[in-house]
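TICKET: design request
STATUS: open
ATTACHED STRUCTURE:
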């Protein structure tokens, strides 16, 4: 999860840059005493740092405070970077220098393959701590090295849906019932664009059918097992059918001006949601929280959630928690990761901010199974996302997935904002990607 998710990447929530320290009494205690060499004070109290990006939901769900109640000698401090694209280079630098690392660190799914292939030796092996079979089948495989080392415990996944404004649909003469909307786009993202053309004919002044063609592109690619790499680990994005389909649809959306052309998680995107100018958003589970936060109270009940276009399930997003070996409290950090990614805690995060669990044990818990979102007209998101999660294909990941995705998304933005011709945009994207791949 997350909720940025990178601008063109697997997505995760944007959040205000902040550092949150839970339990004031413990903070005063640790702040007023001198630490010894292992980071604990004279009374054995320790502070564990969790570095993450966007919005993992632990603060909102009160989990760090709860962990302190269960473990009075442990205080958890969260260090959050708003944008994953800023977070990841810093993480790599810390891994390469061996300094500055938190006790627990988040890793975005778009980066996990590169970390597994190049940095796995710097993380604690979680294979004996967690039961990898508790997660959806493909999740923990993504964090497993060739020698069987598991460097990350899965947090969330991003099963796809479609978020839409019922009031704008009604004004444009489109169906508003979530089942009717799902039927209208049942043929896939091509049907989605056809619906967009219908919307444009009677669109309320100043509104757009979708926020971003690059977001739609990411949704299309996320529904395929083959995305940017082949099964031999070689870049194959130029020949990937999902990339070709997503690019073609994005170019069509830009040409027909069905999109407002706003890169997600930017100030302009936030403002568009606040002003109510966007009618639909490709909506992985974690996106609902972003929409509700940025749209505000005035649009509560005007949004709804329907199944994603087409019959192929898609996953956009998801992250992991890992424990660097260099930490002073590896054992305690590992236990914290195990606890944070257990079903009950993943269900609590889902209830708090709507990011969907990757631990299957959470799916039968009431907070997930019976979940509805009041902001989105009581959409039964527990049912929608759980059903989607069952048939998500196991995607082939590559070391530079994030780079490829971000670069292509940037060029799609250029088609929308600058009127760059598709052929020129694709050339620019491939040149930049090939250079990055070496």
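STATUS: resolved
RESOLUTION: sequence designed for all positions
ATTACHED SEQUENCE:
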């Amino acid at each position: 999860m997350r909720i940025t998710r990178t601008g063109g990447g697997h997505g995760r929530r944007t959040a205000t840059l902040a550092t949150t320290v839970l339990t004031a009494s413990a903070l005063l205690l640790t702040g007023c005493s001198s630490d010894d060499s292992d980071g604990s004070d004279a009374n054995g109290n320790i502070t564990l740092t969790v570095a993450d990006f966007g919005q993992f939901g632990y603060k909102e769900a009160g989990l760090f405070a709860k962990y302190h109640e269960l473990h009075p000698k442990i205080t958890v401090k969260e260090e959050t970077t708003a944008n994953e694209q800023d977070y990841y280079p810093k993480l790599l630098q810390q891994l390469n220098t061996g300094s500055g690392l938190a006790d627990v660190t988040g890793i975005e799914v778009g980066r996990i393959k590169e970390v597994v292939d190049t940095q796995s030796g710097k993380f604690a092996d979680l294979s004996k701590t967690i039961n990898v079979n508790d997660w959806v089948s493909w999740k923990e495989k993504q964090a497993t090295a060739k020698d069987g080392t598991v460097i990350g415990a899965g947090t969330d996944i991003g099963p796809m849906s479609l978020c839409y404004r019922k009031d704008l649909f009604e004004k444009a003469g489109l169906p508003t019932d979530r089942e009717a909307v799902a039927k209208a786009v049942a043929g896939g993202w091509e049907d989605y664009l056809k619906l967009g053309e219908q919307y444009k004919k009677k669109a309320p002044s100043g509104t757009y059918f979708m926020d971003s063609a690059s977001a739609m592109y990411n949704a299309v690619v996320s529904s395929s097992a083959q995305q940017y790499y082949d099964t031999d680990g070689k870049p194959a994005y130029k020949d990937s059918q999902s990339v070709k389909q997503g690019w073609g649809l994005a170019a069509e959306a830009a040409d027909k001006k069905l999109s407002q052309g706003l890169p997600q998680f930017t100030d302009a995107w936030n403002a568009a949601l606040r002003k109510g100018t966007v009618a639909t958003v490709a909506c992985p589970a974690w996106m609902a929280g972003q929409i509700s936060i940025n749209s505000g109270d005035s649009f509560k009940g005007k949004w709804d959630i329907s199944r994603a276009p087409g019959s192929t399930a898609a996953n956009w997003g998801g992250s992991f928690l890992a424990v660097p070996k260099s930490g002073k409290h590896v054992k305690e950090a590992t236990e914290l990761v195990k606890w944070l990614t257990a079903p009950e805690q993943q269900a609590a995060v889902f209830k708090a901010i709507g990011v969907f669990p990757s631990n299957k044990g959470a799916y039968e818990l009431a907070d997930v199974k019976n979940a509805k979102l009041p902001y989105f007209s009581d959409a039964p998101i527990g049912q929608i996302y759980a059903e989607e999660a069952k048939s998500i294909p196991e995607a082939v990941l590559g070391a530079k997935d994030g780079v490829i995705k971000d670069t292509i998304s940037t060029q799609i933005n250029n088609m929308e904002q600058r009127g760059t011709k598709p052929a020129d945009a694709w050339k620019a994207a491939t040149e930049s990607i090939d250079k990055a791949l070496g």
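CLOSING REMARK: The two ends are 29 Å apart (CA to CA). Residues 1-36 have pLDDT under 50 and may be disordered.
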